[in-house]
Structures are given as structure tokens and as C-alpha cells.
Amino acid sequence: MNKFFGTGVAMVTPFQADGQVDFEGLRNLIESLISGGVEYLVALGTTGESATLSKDEKKKIFEFTAEVVNGRLPLIAGIAANNTYEVVESIKAFDTKSYEAILSASPYYNKPTQEGIYQHYKAIAEASPLPVILYNVPGRTGSNVNSETTVRLANDFKNIIGIKEASGNFDLFNQLLRDKPEDFLVISGDDAVTLPMIALGAVGVISVVGNALPKEFSDMVRLCLNGDYVSAQKAHLSIVEFTRLMFTEGNPAGVKAALKQLGVCGDAVRLPLVQVSEKTATAIAAEIKKIKQ
After folding, report:
1. Distance of CA 269 to the CA centre of its chain
2. Would you list the domain boundaries of the chain?
3. pLDDT confidence of 185, banded at 50, 70, 90?
4. Residue 1 clears pLDDT 80, i.e. is over it
5. What is the arithmetic mean of pLDDT over 43-59?
6. Computed from CA positions of residues 249, 214, 240, 222, in that sequence, does the dihedral angle turn out positive or negative?
7. Average pLDDT over the chain, rounded to whole?
8. Which of 22, 135, 180, 183 could bond to 164 as cystine, CB 3.0-4.6 Å?
9. Is 127 helix (H, G, I), strand (E, B) or coil?
């Protein structure tokens, strides 16, 4: 199987109560994910609150993650911005030796045209020594990467190997999976629709929920990839409420609340994000108890 088939986890960045990066919490998280059986890890995606981290903090997190993982799982680096030049310069400065791909979200806030999105990723592909995975998440960026643009990029640049698709648009998924090159990877970027996306031809997920439930979620994904949708459906439905709660008051506040309940790391987030309410934290704790019983 391709190294990016199955469950990748977009790791949170644990923080101490004073807002500093909690490297011991990050170590605990990495060990939990490896022992939970996930296939690969993503450092500093949007779930990692990368927008709130300094360049120095990002560098230290990338280095620390690589050191702890020590080759046990493939690693993907999240490198994105709404300034194409900044992304290109960050990629050129990045120490690639322990990482196997770059995940780059489409530019946020600027709302570029499809041609602008194409030219943005063209510049990234030409600068990157690593394979590139596109990331379409219009709910966060304010613009959509349509299927025609994705297929154009996939055909034009051999180092653009896949897309994390989080648009929630099944019409787009259908067109993309119909028209893409055979070896181009479509990866779910939305935990709640991972099962139907794999049924259509996606190769797995880059998950938020997997931070807290690595075994449960990766087991479900493997059932899907093995074609056992009866068992996969049962596994999927057993965590539907937990998945909903992860996003009720925003990501990653929900999954950090779960990680705190599980004793992996604390639930601190950086402004403008805040921790979930006591009501939601209580509901998350109840779901964890139900799932783990």
C-alpha cells in the first residue's frame, strides 16, 4: 500500500497553561498515535494552530517531531500561507530529511481565482524537493479549489501527488475521482464523511478525531479500505456523536478537550481560539467513557 493510504493524523500542538509549546505533551501525543496504529502523521497543519506559531516555534516543532518519531512513521509537514512567496521561501528553508511530503492549504482570505490557485501551487511544486499534497478547505479559506483545477495541477506536476479534500461537496468529489490521474491520491479531510469518500475511491483520511481515537478511527478506515463496509459502518456510527462534539465549539478546542480527558496532553489553545465550554467538555468525557467501555 502507498505510505499515505489509511489514516494520517493532523496533530494538535499542545500548549502549557502559560501558552508555551508543551513538548512533553507533544511527545505523549506522538507515542499515543504510533501505538494506536495510525499510518502517518502531519505536523503543523491547521489543526496544529500553525497560524499562531512563530517561525522559530515551527522549526523547533518540526525538528522535535522528527526526533521523536525517528522514522517509525512517515511524516508530512504542513507549510501554507496566503502569500505565495512566503510559502516558497519557507519550503526552500525547510529541512526535508525526515519528512516525506508537504501539505499546503490553498490561500486563505485573498479569495484567488482558479487561475490564481493554479499559479500558487505551480510555484510551490516548482520550489518543493518533496511531493506536495494540496488541501482544499473552503470553510476556512473562503475559496474553493474546483475539480478542474485539481486535475490540471495533477496532470501538470508529477510531484503534486494528492489532495486533502475537505469541501464536503460530493458533486466535486465525484468529478475529481472520475477525472483524476490513476495514481493521484484523494484523501478525506473531513472525519464525518471519510467512510463514503473511501467508498467512492478516496484512499484514507487526514484526521482530527484520530488525535484522540487513533485505534478506533484507523481500524474503521482499514475496514473500509478492505471492503468490509458492514463492519466499517458499525465502527463509524459508534463514534458519530464523538466526532460531532469535536467540532461543536471549533477545532482543535474539541479534540484538545478529549486529549485532556484521556491524559495525553492539556487542553490549552492560543487566542483567538478558546477552550470548549464546561457543558461540551462534560459531553466529550461522557462519549469517551462510552467508547472506551
Report:
1. 17
2. 6-232
3. very high
4. no
5. 97
6. positive
7. 97
8. 135
9. helix
Is 113 annotated among the ligand-binding residues? no
Measured distance CA(259)–CA(87) in Å, rounded: 31
CA dihedral 281, 282, 284, 287 (to 10 degrees): 170
CB-based contacts of 181-188 (< 8 A; 24+ apart in sequence)? 181/151, 181/154, 181/155, 184/154, 185/2, 185/4, 185/5, 185/133, 185/161, 186/162, 187/4, 187/8, 187/133, 187/162, 187/163, 188/164
- Among 52, 51, 53, 59, smallest CA distance to 80 is for 51
CA distances from 132 to 24, 46, 91, 173, 287 (A): 29, 16, 11, 19, 36
Q: Residue 105, SS3?
A: strand
Annotated binding residue 206 = yes
Q: Which residues pair with 164 in a beta bridge?
A: 135, 187
Question: What local confidence, expressed as pLDDT, does residue 293 receive?
Answer: 86
User: For the segment 217-254, what is each residue's pLDDT rounded down to a tens digit?
Assistant: 999 999 999 999 999 999 999 999 999 999 999 999 99
pLDDT over 60 (residue 33): yes
| Helix or strand (DSSP H, E) at 91 | helix 84-93
Q: Residue 74: its pLDDT value, please? A: 98
Q: What is the pTM of this model?
A: 0.97
Report DSSP state, residue 53: S
Which CATH class, in words, describes the domain spanning 6-232? alpha beta
pLDDT digits (tens, 9 = 90+) for 117-172: 999 999 999 999 999 999 999 999 999 999 999 999 999 999 999 999 999 999 99
CA dist 82 → 87, 106, 109, 231 (Å): 8, 8, 7, 41
Could you say which of 40, 118, 121, 164 is catalytic?
A: 164
**Whether residue 164 lies in the annotated active site:** yes
Give all strands (DSSP E) within the chain, no chain letters. 6-10, 40-43, 75-78, 101-105, 132-136, 160-165, 185-188, 204-207
Catalytic annotation, pick one of 40, 121, 135, 180: 135
